[in-house]
Amino acid sequence: MQQQQQQRRMFTAALLALVFLLAAVSTTEAGKKEKPEKKAKKSDCGEWQWSVCVPTSGDCGLGTREGTRTGAECKQTTKTQKCKIPCNWKKQFGAECKYQFQAWGECDLNTALKTRTGNLKRALHNADCQKTVTISKPCGKLTKPKPQESKKKKKEGKKQEKMLD
């Protein structure tokens, strides 16, 4: 009988602890205020449109570009950004367009020019670049190659000429 009373006390204590725990959890939840959902900010600001990079001096190196965007509620509608034009890029097709060029072709005897084609490799800052470009340059002198004498024989010949003088 004593054992049954002890079990009832344990059961009652466990039940009270459970009720206390549930009360504590519900009070904590009630104390939290629901945060109103953040309204998605709809901006009428357009995307930035960038001008070409203008070098500070010369035709390559560090420079600046101007950016603009439209929109009545935009905090900033213009800004200037630093930029860099690599000095080893071909500027003929735009300083922001980099091309991978093939080897020079054979000389065209009618025009005395040789050409090669370049495929767009990289465009900086969404520059408007041609996908493929072709460049030409003069062929240079078209002469028959001279048979080469050894340098040693040339030097010896010059020495003998000096001795004879």
From TrEMBL:
<keyword id="KW-0358">Heparin-binding</keyword>
<keyword id="KW-0339">Growth factor</keyword>
<dbReference type="InterPro" id="IPR020092">
    <property type="entry name" value="PTN_MK_heparin-bd_GF_CS"/>
</dbReference>
<dbReference type="InterPro" id="IPR038130">
    <property type="entry name" value="PTN/MK_C_dom_sf"/>
</dbReference>
<dbReference type="GO" id="GO:0008083">
    <property type="term" value="F:growth factor activity"/>
</dbReference>
<dbReference type="InterPro" id="IPR020089">
    <property type="entry name" value="PTN/MK_N_dom"/>
</dbReference>
<dbReference type="InterPro" id="IPR000762">
    <property type="entry name" value="Midkine_heparin-bd_GF"/>
</dbReference>
<protein>
    <recommendedName>
        <fullName>Pleiotrophin</fullName>
    </recommendedName>
</protein>
<comment type="similarity">
    <text>Belongs to the pleiotrophin family.</text>
</comment>
<dbReference type="Pfam" id="PF05196">
    <property type="entry name" value="PTN_MK_N"/>
</dbReference>
<dbReference type="InterPro" id="IPR020091">
    <property type="entry name" value="PTN/MK_diS_sf"/>
</dbReference>
<dbReference type="Pfam" id="PF01091">
    <property type="entry name" value="PTN_MK_C"/>
</dbReference>
<feature type="signal peptide">
    <location>
        <begin position="1"/>
        <end position="30"/>
    </location>
</feature>
<dbReference type="GO" id="GO:0005576">
    <property type="term" value="C:extracellular region"/>
</dbReference>
<keyword id="KW-0964">Secreted</keyword>
<dbReference type="GO" id="GO:0051781">
    <property type="term" value="P:positive regulation of cell division"/>
</dbReference>
<dbReference type="InterPro" id="IPR037122">
    <property type="entry name" value="PTN/MK_N_dom_sf"/>
</dbReference>
<dbReference type="InterPro" id="IPR020090">
    <property type="entry name" value="PTN/MK_C_dom"/>
</dbReference>
<keyword id="KW-0732">Signal</keyword>
<dbReference type="GO" id="GO:0008201">
    <property type="term" value="F:heparin binding"/>
</dbReference>
<feature type="domain" description="Pleiotrophin/Midkine C-terminal">
    <location>
        <begin position="94"/>
        <end position="158"/>
    </location>
</feature>
<comment type="function">
    <text>Secreted growth factor that mediates its signal through cell-surface proteoglycan and non-proteoglycan receptors. Regulates many processes like cell proliferation, cell survival, cell growth, cell differentiation and cell migration.</text>
</comment>
<keyword id="KW-1015">Disulfide bond</keyword>
<keyword id="KW-0497">Mitogen</keyword>
<feature type="region of interest" description="Disordered">
    <location>
        <begin position="137"/>
        <end position="165"/>
    </location>
</feature>
<feature type="domain" description="Pleiotrophin/Midkine N-terminal">
    <location>
        <begin position="32"/>
        <end position="93"/>
    </location>
</feature>
